[in-house]
Amino acid sequence: MPRSKEQFEEMRKATKRKIHASAMRLFVHQGYGSTNVQDIADTAGISIGLLYRHYKTKEELFRELVTYAVEGLKRNITFFNQSDYSPKELIAQFVDEVYSDLSHGEDLAHLLILINQSLLAGAGTNSKQYEEILHVNSQLMYSTIQLIRKGQQLGDFRSGDAQEMAIFLYASIQGLAEMKILLKSGFTVPSPSIITAFLMKEKE
Asked: Contact at 8 Å (CB) between 160 and 91?
């Protein structure tokens, strides 16, 4: 029985997911320069011809992965700008999701390291993607700083420099992503309460 358009579309999406996961793993563990399209195809369990049907070059695939990661950062900005929840609730939910993602897979760790690699590779260039990452990172930092300040005003967060606290939060998450890849099975994700201990005000 011939497949429907919906079935073909699902197969296409499933193949792209396998390519993305394999490419991220290889770029992070082997490095971008040491990874070739044959490596990606082999790790994904597909033919190199099928990979080329989705991506003409390794560079195109890398750019799409970084774009995907940047879209995740944009969603975080939108999430932090919500007014229906308190800053404490928003930060707690954000850290809970980070904890869950780091506990149950490597995708978040790979994405965070991939963004870092892209920034380092793009430093000193005028590429649109590099500029976009810097812009989105700046927006996310601003939204987080404002959220922390609001939480401090409400008495839920500790006093201190909100910018320093925001930098510490993201540096901690980035460090955890790198530790997860380095330590492999020896890695344990700190609990959300430990990750946010510097920020959350203790109940009196």
From this structure: no
